[in-house]
Amino acid sequence: MAINRTSSHGEWSSRTAFILAATGSAVGLGNIWKFPYITGENGGGAFVLIYILCVLFIGIPIMLSEVYLGKRGRLNPIASIRYISERENRSKNWQIIGLIGILAGILILSYYSVIAGWTMAYATRTAFGVINNIDALGATKMFNDFVSDPERLLAWHTIFSIITAIVVSKGVKSGLESAVIRLMPALLVLLLALVIFSAIEGDFMNGMKFMLYPDFSQVTWKTILIAMGQAFFSLSLGMGALMVYGSYLSSDISIPQTCVIVASLDTLVALLAGLAIFPIVISAGLEMTQGPGLLFQTLTVAFGAMPGGQLFGTLFFILLIFAAWTSSISLIEPMVIWLIEKFNISRIQAAIISSGTAWLLGIGTIVSFNIGKEIKIFNMNIFEMLDYLTSNILLPMGGIMITIYVSWLISKESIDSELNIRSTILRRIWYLSARIIAPLAVIFVMLNALGFNLTIL
Question: Are 272 and 29 in contact (CB under 8 A)?
């Protein structure tokens, strides 16, 4: 029978609100630069096809499983799994899944907030014309001077942390929902405006060819591994955010339909980001490097040299701020509701403690780029260590455990009733994907990321 429990923290007012929130959680800084870049470098349209298959058979099954746990448990990630385990006669030790999600979310937010602060700083600089007619050498110097100043980084990190805490402190409808129903449409409008600008001022045809032209000669086992990893991480899986957002779903909303829509929107945003970025970079004759260099050096040169570049460059960095903001509120929410339920404190207090914890940990990331860059942990600086721990260990581990727990240990009656997949074929495909394909694929990606050379298989 369907689950009729409700969350004490409130509910989304509609399916659209949940879709926007979940999409906002999934769409982040990585979608804006990483997906377009790896698409172009790994076979273009061939990579997109492989990525979509990975989303269908790996990402969506895990997403369905995570949202199901939240919707059934209606509590924080740890308590939800403990509640479900009691009713399914399973070990309470499975609540470690919730602990992994909460820990991963706050650790990711600690360095995510720092990078988000960079986007705020660059939006301001672009708006005031600082990047106008800047050359590659000047852009590199500006970026290096910026990240070498710990006080400046701390100031922007603090501002972004405060903004995130304010949104989360207001609750589900007044805070989270109010933010995402404004930010996500604005993000899409900005992105479409940038695509139009790119089509007018950039080399749109070559940019599209770079990202979407299918070149199967570049497809290797490594390409498939990259696609699997991107499908998993770009959908915001394994960090407790979707479990918490699922706990705010009303009982009459279909999990499969909403998850498919979220995955589709996430992929659409990534593709549009590529169509906005690469024509501009190609037309300027610049190097399409990966990572912060593309966002904060290459694109500043491109926008600085183009007609209307000051306006559209500013819009681009505002787009990045919105993407970072919608992701950050989902990263902090699991810890917030855990603190509320565990210690019976107010949401405002929980938001302050959670954001304060992430802020404090973020100082480690800040000094990784300047006064503390010589500090090494396993031959990595603090930022690299946090990124490695979350991306290569905690998130894959959480994702594997989620899909195994739901598909193998939860009664089929409960799953079938809640997911309500009416097609027998689709239901069998989901079980096959959730029980076998998704766990094995994530293990494969995880081992490869940890240094095991599996690409020769």
Answer: no
More confidently predicted of 353 and 290: 353
Average predicted confidence (pLDDT) for the chain:
91
The residue range of the domain holding 167 is: 15-449
How far is the C-alpha of 60 from the C-alpha of 421, rounded, in Å?
13
Q: Look at residue 33 and tell me whether its pLDDT is greater than 80.
A: no
Would you call 248 helix, strand, or coil by DSSP? coil
Q: Which of 38-52, 172-186, 355-369 has the highest mean pLDDT?
A: 355-369
> Quick check: helix, strand or coil at residue 377?
strand
Residue 141 φ/ψ region, left for φ over 0, alpha for ψ in the -120 to 50 degree band, beta for the rest:
alpha
CATH number at 236 reads: 1.10.4160.10
Give residue-wise pLDDT tens across range 37-86. Answer: 788 888 888 999 999 999 999 999 999 999 999 999 999 999 999 999 99
Three-state SS string over 29-73 comes to HHHHHHHHHHHHHCCCHHHHHHHHHHHHHHHHHHHHHHHHHHHHH
Is 132 part of a structural domain of the chain? yes
380 three-state secondary structure: strand
Q: What pLDDT score does 1 carry?
A: 43
Please, which pLDDT band fits residue 457 given cuts at 50, 70 and 90?
very low
For 165, the token pair is: 């805490």
Closest CA to 67 of 58, 77, 57, 54: 77
Contact 61, 430 (CB under 8 A): yes
DSSP secondary structure string, 142-163? HHHHHHT-HHHHHHHHHHHHHH
User: Is the separation of the CB atoms in 135 and 301 below 8 Å?
Assistant: yes
Token pair 């500006």 is found at: 142
- Give 296's Cβ-side CA count (13 Å radius): 22
The total number of structural domains that make up the chain:
1
Other beta carbons less than 10 A from residue 311's beta carbon: 14
pLDDT digits (tens, 9 = 90+) for 5-29: 778 888 999 999 999 999 999 998 8
Tell me how far apart the alpha carbons of residues 86 and 88 are, in angstroms, rounded to a whole number. 6
Residue 280 lies in a domain: yes
**6 assigned to some structural domain:** no
Which of 50, 135, 66 has the alpha carbon at shortest distance from 100? 66
> Among residues 246, 233, 183, 227, which one has the least CA distance to residue 44?
227
Q: Strand, helix or coil at 175?
A: helix
Instruction: Please check whether residue 183 lies inside any domain of the structure.
Output: yes
